[in-house]
Amino acid sequence: MAQTGKASVEFTxxxxxxxxxxxxxxxxxGIIVLIILALIAIFANFLAPxxxxxxxxxxxxxxxxxQFLLGTDEYGRDILSRLIFGARISLLIGFIAVGIALxxxxxxxxxxxxxxxxxxxxxxRIMDILLSIPSTLLAISIAATxxxxxxxxxxxxxLSSLPQYARVIRGSVLSLREQxxxxxxxxxxxxxxxxxxKHIIPNCMAxxxxxxxxxxxMAILTASGLSFIGLGIQPPYPEWGAMLSxxxxxxxxxxxxxxxxxxAIMITILALNYLGDGLRxxxxxxxxx
Amino acid sequence: MEQTHPMVExxxxxxxxxxxxxxLHAVDGVSFSIRKGETLGLVGESGCGKSTLGRVMxxxxxxxxxxxxxxxxxxxTYSARKMKGMRKKVQIVFQDPYSSLNPRLSVSxxxxxxxxxxxxxxxxxxxxxxxGELMDTVGLARRLMNxxxxxxxxGRRQRIGIARSLALSPEFIVLDEPxxxxxxxxxxxxxxxxxxxxxxxxxxxxxxxxxxxxxxxxSDRIAVMYLGKIVELSDYKSLFVEPxxxxxxxxxxxxxxxxFGKKRDRxxxxxxxxxxxxxxxxxRFQVRCPYSQDxxxxxxxxxxxxxxGRFVACHFARSLVPAAGKSGQQN
Amino acid sequence: xxxxxxxxxxxxLSIHYVVESGTVHAVENLxxxxxxxxxxxxxxxxxAGKTTTALGIMGLVPNPPGKIISGKILFEGEDLLxxxxxxxxxxxxxxxxxxxxxxxxxxxxxxxxxxxxxxMVLLHNKLTEQQALERAEEMLELVGIKRERAKDYxxxxxxxxxxxxxxxxxxxxxxxxxxxxxxxxxxxxxxxAQVLELMHELRRKINTSLIMITxxxxxxAEMCDKVAIMYAGKVVEYAPTEALFTHxxxxxxxxxxNSIPDLxxxxxxxxxxxxxxxxxxxxxxxxxxxxxxxxxxxxxxxxVPPMVEIEPGHFVACxxxxxxxxxxxx
Lengths: 289, 331, 330
Fold this sequence. Notes:
By secondary structure, chain A is mainly alpha-helical. Chain A contains 13 helices and no strands. In chain A, helix 7 packs across helix 11 (205-228). Chain A is elongated, with a radius of gyration of 22 Å. In chain B, helix 3 runs parallel beside helix 5, helix 4 (124-138) crosses helix 5 (154-166) and helix 5 (154-166) runs parallel beside helix 6. Chain C has ten helices and twelve strands. Chain C is of the alpha/beta class. Chain B binds chain C through residues 45-46, 153, 155, 183-189, 191-192, 195, 210, 212-214, 216-217, 240, 250-251, 253-263, 266, 268-269, 272-273, 330-331, and chain C through 45-46, 144-146, 158, 160-161, 188-194, 196-197, 215-222, 241-242, 244-246, 255-263, 268-273, 276-277.
């Protein structure tokens, strides 16, 4: 590695990551889509032409028209407006569920990785038990136990993916624990808590970011699945999965009721996946160093 | 010249690691003392235990046995709380300027760490002032305060490591191969810096290195280690003029001299460095020693003082006779 | 440079790496030559361009981002840069072999050592597998490893032994030129002594020319007939070993010698070269060394100094210090 007084020849740090990310066209598409979605979610009140819950029985099952751009559902509610408000709910679920999983799973994983020994064994065996249950099933069980509602849905989805985050972070912590800068922190008297929080976790950002980005996609899918079978979001809240479920019975005659929510889900997941893949590649050269 | 008490007294220090193949004797009964203001060089090849010894001395690793006395008190018996106070006085500089700095912290954050952890300058202004002073001391331009390690070269990074170790105004610093990862020209700059710091602040150093020329340059006394034991300990001049232990002799003769025409008689040791796992009885070096006799296999030589200030762990120091049947055949 | 039939003649070689932040001038207008049977020491610090030059000779410069901008690499009279990949493949290992610094990663961990040597033999010779394995065992003996160990795997050998295996592979086809890139840097000093001793012995037995890339002037003093000192992509001094050690011409060479603690003397402070190696994407104008040079004058920042022969065979790229017959004054 050339030792120079000025910055090294390749970009490193955030500038470098962004630079490399820019080159990956699909992840740029992903970012743009997500930004649009976020804006839609934030400004839903202004963008939606109609309310998401107002029923209009005179206009049931209408196909897309000038008045109702994406058509109406079985209660005459405007699908476009419901999709717009649904974006808010889906994104909220995605991020909060991931947040819950990250904080709880991450903490457990960090403790397991850093202290090792019996602490590690106990925590990881519990994780193994949780992992042996398919995560959707786990989410269903938790949701069924907690009962319906947006908040409970977020908890259920979050906790069901907890073990993955524990695993990922434990792996990072294990390798970082042996780094000399951790020894250096010990040598000046840093407490274990400080070392984990200030030295180790910030250096795990790469796998955390990748896991989280893809995790939001999974969370949205899982939430949609739960709403599809009737757990989680209760009507009239317009969660995309619930909308899919609602249109299930009319798929032959009125496919637009399922097609559009389905498309919305698909686009969001794709965007998140492209972004996640791009981030993983962009963060990799930094890891290789 | 004599002081009442040496600052550091290490007695029979041991560090063993349990491995799948048996007990690894990384440090196996090491004893020496260091006077205030002195630099003790610790020299040896990979696996000799010098890095482990450095870390055990300041309790970065827990010892398996023995004593480490600083100012007469055995720090191995200190409670965690007392040890934290001790950390202000004993510090360490690491070998790898790339992995010993947290890549997420800026230069000033890195140097601030010891100050923050020990609540030394509660006010941020005082802290920043101290950081600036430290940077001046080690020759880091103040404009680099908010730079990150990856933006800087090895020499500058090592200066950060040194500044960090000086933050708490220690009295004793373990330098673990501080210049090995640096290019020759930068190495010289750092060596000069360490030298001038010692002159200015009176630090006591343990300088660990595998590079004998560097060690000679910085040390007052040098201890040569082999497989967890000290085989020779003397002042730097005598060690090079008259190395007593066969390993020291081989080590010295192995160094290619950057001088034309000075080809010396090289003692080529047979075989490889044996494993420190479950070492056999007797002298650790006898397998490769060109002078080994039967007694070397049976009895472990103790480190004894052959003359004032010169210690050797060899049954036949100053009366070495080439062993029968040893030729240059390498396996 | 002499008129004898040269084994290797590098003329005006320039290799650049194009990266995001600019162009790295890894090697700039390099001129170097090697006569048959000669050992050349190639000295410089990290980033000077030594490995890039070696890769250039081997045709292994990664492209992208590396690009050979100009120059000729004449090996036995033929320009290697004009050759096709297929032609280079038969030259690599056959006529020119290279060994690298880290023996840990140079060997395939899942192949026995005899097979790895045999692989090299079979690539360049029409032999049966049995004959190749036999040759492999001969090579192992040559480098001082007992034949019984032929079927062992690399992890069963220590670092020094691994490097011997690497040397055995490199010499298996009797190459005319061996390029060794810091072959002993990763080894302990006593093991390094063993390997250097081995290379001495081999030199007596096999007539392979050697380019020894190293930062260790001690190794150069022992092993090499000629030395080239590299700085920021250029050769700044080129001389027979004796001349270089007794009266170096270039200020950088002088600085290198001053930076090494001398085993024989007792000075407290080392005369260091101030500053750092320049950024390879932003080299100083004129002589790349002038910002750090204690003897620099204004002209040094204006033009790149040419290599001047200050005595037969001794070339220095410094108009200020590299004056012909300067050594007579010492």
